[in-house]
Amino acid sequence: MKILVLNGSPKKKSDTFRLTEAFLRGMNKRQRQEVRVVNVIEKKIAPCRGCFGCWKRMDGHCVIKDDQNEILDLYRASDVIIWSFPLYCYAMPSHLKAVLDRTIPLVKMAMRQEADGSVRHEALADFSRMHTLVICGCGFPDWEGNFEGLRKMCEVCFDGPDMVCVPETPLMNVPQAAVVADPLLAKFEAAGEEYAASLTLSPETVAALETPMISKEEYIRNVNG
Ligand SMILES: Cc1cc2nc3c(=O)[nH]c(=O)nc-3n(C[C@H](O)[C@H](O)[C@H](O)COP(=O)(O)O)c2cc1C
């Protein structure tokens, strides 16, 4: 399988990417996958100009000449897209959002109405084989509402992706927290194996991956201390 990982953390030592790496290890366990990781922060991706030049050309590319067209080519050729990023202000980091905005060359201006009444643009090509997985880390402990906006956006933009939203991810790079971080990495590895076999994650697996490593109270105490 061709897997494109869009790493949206701007950091060299990303908390979230540690989880994604463990997931990829799991995906590679039974069969070697063709994995391409794009560190988005290293790419030159301008914000969308809103010119709709792509819809005039309809060739699946953006009129801006920067690194986005290379990403669009990789995107179209992939079976699985993994969006791996930290939560920034209840959403994805702006440099990654620029990549998402500039995927509109992959759809047409033409609209269609879904059975549920929602309206979408028609895809430029058949993307039905493609699977999307979102792995998002964040600095807050678990609380209802932290991931709500992101979840809604991903649900509509990626057409109901598999999604794993992990609280307390700064613990992934705290050596003293290895006792709770390592078991989570092992769970991510097992989840990667599950995903490679079924191209989806069971609700039980997602719940296990999203379970906080330590209690909200202990986490806040440690942060404030
Ligand atoms: C600009 C900025 C905005 C952030 N916004 C949130 C937020 O809305 N909610 C949250 O829980 N954490 C937030 N965080 C914390 C990061 O999500 C957290 O530190 C994460 O572990 C970083 O992951 P990374 O190492 O993969 O980049 C924010 C961090 C930064 C720098």
Structure commentary:
By secondary structure, the protein is α/β, with parallel strands linked by helices. The chain has one domain (2-224): Rossmann fold (3-Layer(aba) Sandwich), CATH 3.40.50. The protein is built from 8 helices and 7 strands. Strands 2-1-3-6-7 form a 5-stranded parallel β-sheet, with helices on both faces. Strands 4-5 form a two-stranded antiparallel ribbon. Strand 6 (131-137), helix 5 and strand 7 (162-166) form a beta-alpha-beta unit. The longest helix has 21 residues, at 178-198. The protein is globular and about 55 Å long. The protein starts with a strand and ends with a helix. The model has no long low-confidence stretch (mean pLDDT 97). It binds flavin mononucleotide (FMN). Flavin mononucleotide (FMN) is lined by residues 9, 11, 14-17, 86-90, 137-140, 146, 169-170. Flavin mononucleotide binds next to helix 1.
Characteristics of this structure?
globular, binds flavin mononucleotide, Rossmann fold, two-stranded antiparallel sheet, 5-stranded parallel beta sheet, 225 residues, alpha/beta
